[in-house]
Amino acid sequence: MDKVSGSGFESKNEYMFGKMDMQLKLIPGNSAGTVTAFYLSSKGPASDEIDFEFLGNLSGDPYILNTNVLSQGKGDREQQFFLWFDPTADFHTYSILWNRQRILFSVDGTPIREVENMESREVPFPKNRPMRVYSTLWNADDWATMGGLIKTNWSNAPFTASCRNFNADMACVWPSNLTSASSCSFISTAGDQWMIEELHTSDQENLKWVQKNYMVYDYCTDLKRFPQGLPLECNIA
């Protein structure tokens, strides 16, 4: 990315549910104002999204990993984390599991966030629109670093993030002529167990460890942002 343009790519296929991951190495040094993203998104208005966004920072300060889930265009469900390693020193694997029951965000195989399907409680969940996988690098210095207080230092450009080993072997490819989600909603082989995958006891402990030690923001505790009351899912045990 330079002052003229950012960069990015998208998958050739659209997917309806899947277990997908990619290895990323983030911008070293002063990355303030930049956002490196790995995410799923549907086309059209009121889109669905599942987001990993890495918010750049000044040299010596840690990246913030922002996660979010949008359904029917409704988002505002951010959880943010510091990482327990330097994401600029080497490649690390960032994974999204998306099935009808839940969405799991994982880093190097360690779950950091789970979003359960609570449609029965009138909480929107992305399950009706196919999504492509994207990775982008762009300037967001109006909000990315300290709420936009720290701007991108263009003397450090071009900014470079690296991606490799994208994997969507465990995912349902959406045929271009398909009009129903039905063919991506059943278990056909033992290799499709990701369609019903959930957190086991050890994974739940790892999730609690990450959220206790590395979570720096949870929308479900932000009373200033939601003065009329927290979103419905925040109050569902």
From TrEMBL:
GO terms of biological process kind: cell wall biogenesis; cell wall organization; xyloglucan metabolic process
Domain of life: Eukaryota
Enzyme class: transferase
Signal found in the keyword field: yes
Pfam family of the protein (one): Glyco_hydro_16
SUPFAM superfamilies: Concanavalin A-like lectins/glucanases
Annotated EC: 2.4.1.207
UniProt name for this protein: Xyloglucan endotransglucosylase/hydrolase
